[in-house]
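> forwarded from #structure-qc
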């Protein structure tokens, strides 16, 4: 609600942007979760393959290891992988006593370890002992600090009473690089999908909202007077809205027609008795006759003034009314040129583009006619009129003269109803006040200021629709 208690329209964001961002946001979340999930699955697959390979090595070692009389163990057959014989190659194995300290010298180890020892954690050793001969996977550091993936198995070798722990290890870095490469590839691929998804979402939302944009254009055409009703094909969800809008347009036209009828009836009802009184007092030279003639003239001016306001208020709320402003200025300019030719007043006008007033022609004629006639009436020798459009498609009318002009205080007073600063000039004093009231009724503005020609300058802004082009006279 606004501060004056009336409901107002507030623009808050874009429906197109809202739907696009919502769909894109959800899509990005799903793609991100998908990329992370795929990478995690691939990582687990790589680790499982690595653990399976290390478990197979411990199985081979279990078969090929034999106890020696001195309490040691010996490998009766070398492993086929030559990297177990290359120093710090990244593939290692060793055998330690299950009850020995974790950093104790191994009972036996691969040549690739040289004289280094793989130290496992107490938790991993305990888990291996509790696994009853089954391999347990874990992690440790290698000879040069590289991360290792381990398979640890606690067994009892024949001819040996104390259990030993067989450890097979492999450098994790190649596997980690595979996981990283896969993750980057998945991220890049899903990023490409995200871009395509963004394009698809925007296109989909635009196509989905195209009936809404079509309906907006149809309403604008009705408002500008290009069509009488909303027509065309619309989805079933929007047909009730289009139907209601057509009903609202019809209702608005009916209200305006009723208002015009009432205004016309009121005009006839008031003018007849006023005319009778004026005619009766015309031949009466008494004080009462003068008073009646004066008051009937005032009443006539007031009636004309308020009837114009009522008609303008009804027309301003009408839908579809439009009047080319250039035509009105051209017609009035030619007429006033002939009328004021005897006073040698030079009247020039310029029309920029094709401004179209969003209202009734008669109201625009009252507005422009009052301003141009007032300027010609007070001008010494020249009046300039210019009509065009602003950035918001509003119609702008400027009327300048080289007459005596008005000071700021007089400009404010002259807009009052029936105020005449010079009683010797013809008129009722309602001209500029009518312009001000009509402009406000249409949601426009009207100001008086000093003219560049030295006299009075009138600036009128009205709602309208502008087109391109320029005409000069």
């Amino acid at each position: 609600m606004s501060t004056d208690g009336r409901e107002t329209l507030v623009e808050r964001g874009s429906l197109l942007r809202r739907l696009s961002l919502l769909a894109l946001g959800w899509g990005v979340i799903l793609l991100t979760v998908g990329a992370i999930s795929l990478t995690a699955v691939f990582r687990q697959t790589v680790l499982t393959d690595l653990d399976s390979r290390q478990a197979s090595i411990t199985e081979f070692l279990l078969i090929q290891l034999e106890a020696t009389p001195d309490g040691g163990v010996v490998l009766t057959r070398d492993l086929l992988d030559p990297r177990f014989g290359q120093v710090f190659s990244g593939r290692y194995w060793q055998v330690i006593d299950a009850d020995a300290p974790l950093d104790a010298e191994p009972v036996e180890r691969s040549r690739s370890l040289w004289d280094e020892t793989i130290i496992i954690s107490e938790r991993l050793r305990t888990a291996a002992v509790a696994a009853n001969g089954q391999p347990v996977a874990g992690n440790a550091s290698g000879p040069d600090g590289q991360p290792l993936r381990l398979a640890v198995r606690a067994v009892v070798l024949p001819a040996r009473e104390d259990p030993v722990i067989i450890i097979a290890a492999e450098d994790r870095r190649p596997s980690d690089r595979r996981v990283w490469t896969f993750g980057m590839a998945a991220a890049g691929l899903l990023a490409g999908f995200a871009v395509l998804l963004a394009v698809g979402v925007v296109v989909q939302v635009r196509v989905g909202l195209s009936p809404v944009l079509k309906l907006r254009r149809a309403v604008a055409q009705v408002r500008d007077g290009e069509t009488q009703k909303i027509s065309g094909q619309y989805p079933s969800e929007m047909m009730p809205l289009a139907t209601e809008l057509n009903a609202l347009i019809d209702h608005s036209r009916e209200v305006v027609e009723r208002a015009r009828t009432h205004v016309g009836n009121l005009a006839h009802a008031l003018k007849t008795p006023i005319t009778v009184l004026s005619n009766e007092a015309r031949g009466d030279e008494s004080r009462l006759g003068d008073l009646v003639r004066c008051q009937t003239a005032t009443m006539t001016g007031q009636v004309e003034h308020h009837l114009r306001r009522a008609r303008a208020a009804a027309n301003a709320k009408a839908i579809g009314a439009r009047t080319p402003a250039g035509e009105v200025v051209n017609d009035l300019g030619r007429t006033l040129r002939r009328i004021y030719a005897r006073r040698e007043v030079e009247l020039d006008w310029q029309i920029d583009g094709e401004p179209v007033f969003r209202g009734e022609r008669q109201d625009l004629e009252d507005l422009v006619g009052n301003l141009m006639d007032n300027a010609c009436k007070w001008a010494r020798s020249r009046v300039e009129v210019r009509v065009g459009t602003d950035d918001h498609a509003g119609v702008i009318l400027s009327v300048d003269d080289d007459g005596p002009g008005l000071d700021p205080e007089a400009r404010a007073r002259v807009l009052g109803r029936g105020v005449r600063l010079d009683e010797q000039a013809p008129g009722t004093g309602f001209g500029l006040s009518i312009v001000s009231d009509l402009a406000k009724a249409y949601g426009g503005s009207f100001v008086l200021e000093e003219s560049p020609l030295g006299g009075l300058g009138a600036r009128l802004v009205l709602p309208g629709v502008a087109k391109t082009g320029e005409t000069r006279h």
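QC bot note: The radius of gyration is 48 Å. The chain has a mean pLDDT of 81.
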